[in-house]
Design goal:
alpha/beta; YbaK protein; three-stranded antiparallel sheet; 8 strands; globular; YbaK/aa-tRNA-synt-asso_dom_sf
Length: 154
């Protein structure tokens, strides 16, 4: 698997305190939380959204939440859907489930839900399904990414 996105994640976190964990591939957010020894709520779930016109945005929330597409429509001003697997790979150079919560790495806007901002530390896949950034302080994530904080979960 291509490691360029993983390397970019580590580069943008230079100087920040976190743990890098190598683990088995995890198919669900619950499995990821288990191998990380973390709560589901602290997982940063990053979802690429397609506005159906080739315009993409990254929506990041707590892994314990589900996104509400009516709220996303009001944010983007148009009907949207999850990006197809092929688009996820084209835009992020990652497989679905491995996308890190950094839209800036891909030249797209990042929206972060308060469900994640309320967590003191976050955990997420770092561009690969087998490597996670763990125990990154939420303040450090917000400082690096500078996402738009807006509610979009159910």
């Amino acid at each position: 698997m291509d490691t360029r996105t993983h390397e970019k994640v580590l580069e943008c976190l230079k100087g920040k305190s976190y743990e890098l964990l190598e683990h088995e591939e995890t198919p669900t957010s619950e499995d990821s939380a288990r191998v990380r020894g973390a709560t589901l709520e602290s997982g940063a779930k990053a979802m690429l959204v397609d506005s159906r016109k080739g315009s993409f945005a990254l929506f990041v929330c707590s892994a314990s939440c589900k996104i509400n597409f009516k709220k996303i429509k009001s944010i983007l001003g148009k009907k949207s859907q999850f990006a197809k697997e092929e688009s996820v790979l084209d835009v992020t150079n990652c497989a679905s489930g491995a996308v890190p919560p950094f839209g800036r790495l891909f030249g797209i806007q990042t929206y972060c839900d308060p469900s994640l901002v309320s967590q003191p530390e976050i955990n997420f896949n770092a561009g690969l399904r087998t490597k996670s950034v763990c125990r990154l302080r939420i303040e450090d994530y917000l400082d690096v990414e500078k996402p738009t904080i807006i509610e979009f979960v159910e």
